[in-house]
Fold these 2 entries.
Entry 1:
Amino acid sequence: MAAVGAFLNHVARESSDIDRLANFYQEIFGFERIESPKFDCKVIWLKQAPSFCLHLIERDSNTKLPEGPWSSNDAVADPKNLPRGHHLCFSVSNFDSFVKTLKEKGIETHEKAQPNGKTKQVFFFDPDGNGLEVASE
């Protein structure tokens, strides 16, 4: 399955101190803070010209789980946990066709939309268990 026109959208990183992490990326790599969507946890969006973004997500302080590839809330590899866990995001021009292909291949997914309803998202794992998101353009 070739996702023609796919490009890197953002990388998400979970941290217990996202302000400290944001300051590091701003100072070391020249990222700038941009407007962040409102979620049920604290997030910071950073952008590096021309269009690469880093999405910093506040780690759940009640978790007893170590940081890992899935989520701070659950050590089970379930795509429903990826919106708050470590994942790499790509955008595609034909989101619905892309999701249909994933399902035809038997890949377990979790679909949702951003709170503003404009961007559709699908979360899933690669064969090595790395979290992936594909977002509509």
Note: Residues 18-29 form the longest helix (12 residues).
Entry 2:
Amino acid sequence: MKILIIEDERSLAQSISTYLTDEQYLCEFAVNMEEAYEKVDLYEYDCILLDLMLAGGDGLKVLEEIKAQNKQSGVIIISARDSVDDKITGLRLGADDYLAKPFHLSELAARIYSLIRRRNFGNDDVIHFDDVRINLQGKSVTVADQLVPLTRREYDLLLYFISNKNKVISKNALAEHLSGDMADALDNFNYIYVHIKNLKRKLTEAGCDNYLKTMYGTGYKWEM
């Protein structure tokens, strides 16, 4: 899962990133309005953490841009502006949550988890389809009660496919999801093929039906 941290206090942004990376999120940064607009325009994120007091303007303008572009990213405002009016304005403009500074990183991580679970997985902690069972809190996958030993990236790919089931996902989108903006500098997508090949092999060996389809020339689709 990919997170955009829009925060001009670099030490706080780095602390958030370090904590969330340990929770197996991929984090990117924007430290001012210009960078925030650029990131929002070019890339997709599972969740955006948005400070309101940014160099160059008000973070609420970024929120308005996110909604104007009909982005599907969840948005959690993180701000020292903790008045009721600020919270009401942010939520009315489309933010999913509002967390006043200072906050505990564990609480922020819990809110991110809750937001992604609600938006992508019907608010369930455990996802079932046929014999496949994914425990989101435990980050584990079983097929017919047999544990499937996925790597971090294989697990992330599986969640990404399931949250976009029956949609064709391009190789570019997969590369961006796994590598963030670094995907722009890649010469090829060979590592994507390797991760998907290993994911399919492990699921098949565990007895899972072939839900993950190759759409030749376009990408991949989790078909249910």
Note: The first strand starts at residue 2 and ends at 6.
